Amino acid sequence: SAQAESVINSLGIVEDQDGENGSTDDVELNVFRAQWMSELKPNSASNGGNRGLSSRAADLKRKQELAREEKARELFLKAVEEEENGAVYEAIKYYRRAMQIVPDIEFKINYSRSPDPDGGNENDMDGEIEDLLAYFHQQLTLQDNSLKICVPEVDIAQMHISALPPEVLMYIFRWVVSRDLDLRALEQLSLVCRGFYICARDPEIWRSACLRAWGRSCTKLVPFNSWREMFLERPRVRFDGVYISKTAYIRQGEESLDGFYRAWHQVEYYRYLRFFPDGQVMMLTTPEDPLVTVPRLRSRNTRVESIMCGHYRLSQDTDNQTKVFVVVSKRKEEVITALDRDNLIRWQTAPETEHSFHVGLQLSSGGRQSFNKLNWIHHSCHITYRSTGETVVTAFDLDQMYASFYFARVKSYTAFSERPL
């Protein structure tokens, strides 16, 4: 525009010098000026339009990014839900889709959920719990200073659960927890009412759970402030599901008869570890999918072939690393009985050797769940000869074939309570 003004001014100077043309030249000059300015205005408007288009494009891009992030967040939370429900491989699909949309979606999500005794890092502070318990006690105390667990919301003809003595109600709560230590169900039960919340925070229940989980090694609370805090924060293996390890590799096959090609095989198999509160453990290696195998591991009396049973113990070293040591062996084979047709005498055969496998694992936490990962640190086979009593130990090298175990919660494992805590 400045260049145009200079051109117009120069034209004005020329007009002054050639004033002899008179008014005719003035009219033509004015027309030229008007035409020139009309040609300049669309250019300036187009520049403003370009700026408007760029701003609209930036706004559209931001909206698209927000939409992608929202979609990725939805898929990621769906994956978390599937993982909590035990559908590990469905969860992996959703995780992959979410990270394909937004690679760092895991760090853009704010988790806000209720405390989970088996997998949450959002534990209540002790002071807040004490204040809340005191408040609930005050609200539920009658004039005669006797504690009433709960009050019926509406009048009913049948007997209400509030009529039960506190001792009977606490016994019911112990059935809810069961010998399998289903503290997750206890936390859900505490959401019913204030009275149930008080009962679910009973120190004796949490003390019994700690004794069952760690035995004599948890006789003291130090450094924890409560038995509940110990159960939530002290490293332990989980009993409401199964630890799964998946191994996959490619193996070269045999050459064809004509020698033109050689097949390659992709081999996949799984290792399963199921822990029980009484120190027993089951270990299974199989190519079958978890959807088929996991339901069979619900009972310790399962009849799955090639399953190994044994015991485990927890060990916490000076480096504050919790390790799990497992010793498993195949179940004792059924006594082989044969009938001698001549003498009608039954005879029995027993194996000459006994095989046991010693496994060392390091317990750790990953993601939002606690104590959900086991890393290999040792694996060996012990062969004992019955005739001489000699034991031969063979240690295996830990390579990429030893994938870490990841925990998958299985609801059916705690769906029924066989014995109270």
Description:
With 421 residues, the chain is α+β, with helices and mostly antiparallel strands. It has helices at residues 2-17, 23-84, 88-101, 126-139, 166-177, 183-189, 194-200, 203-214, 227-233, 290-293, and strands at 241-255, 262-275, 280-286, 308-316, 322-330, 336-339, 346-349, 353-366, 369-385, 391-395, 405-409. Strands 1-2-3-4-5-8-9-11 form an eight-stranded antiparallel barrel. A two-stranded antiparallel ribbon has the order 6-7. A hairpin with a 4-residue loop joins strand 2 (262-275) and strand 3. Helix 2 runs antiparallel to helix 3 (88-101) and helix 8 crosses helix 9 (227-233). The chain is flat and about 130 Å long.
Q: Which characteristics define this entry?
A:
single chain; 421 residues; alpha+beta; eight-stranded antiparallel beta barrel; two-stranded antiparallel sheet; TPR repeat; MIT_dom_sf; Hrt3/FBXO9_C; ubl conjugation pathway; F-box-like_dom_sf
Given as residue ranges, the uncertain stretches (5+ residues, pLDDT < 50) are 13-21, 120-127, 334-341, 344-348
Rounded mean pLDDT is 76
Helix-and-strand structural type: alpha+beta
Strand content: 15-25%
Give the distance, in angstroms, between the N- and C-terminal Cα atoms: 89 Å
For the biggest β-sheet, the strand order reads 1-2-3-4-5-8-9-11
Largest sheet: 8 strands, antiparallel, barrel
Order of helices and strands: HHHHHHHHHEEEHEEEEEEEE
Helix amount, in percent? 25-40%
Radius of gyration: 38 Å
Number of strands: 11
Number of helices: 10
Shape: flat
Region (Disordered): 1-25
Function: Substrate recognition component of a SCF (SKP1-CUL1-F-box protein) E3 ubiquitin-protein ligase complex which mediates the ubiquitination and subsequent proteasomal degradation of target proteins and acts as a regulator of mTOR signaling.
InterPro entries: F-box-like_dom_sf (IPR036047), F-box_dom (IPR001810), Hrt3/FBXO9_C (IPR045464), MIT_dom_sf (IPR036181)
Keywords: Cytoplasm, TPR repeat, Ubl conjugation pathway
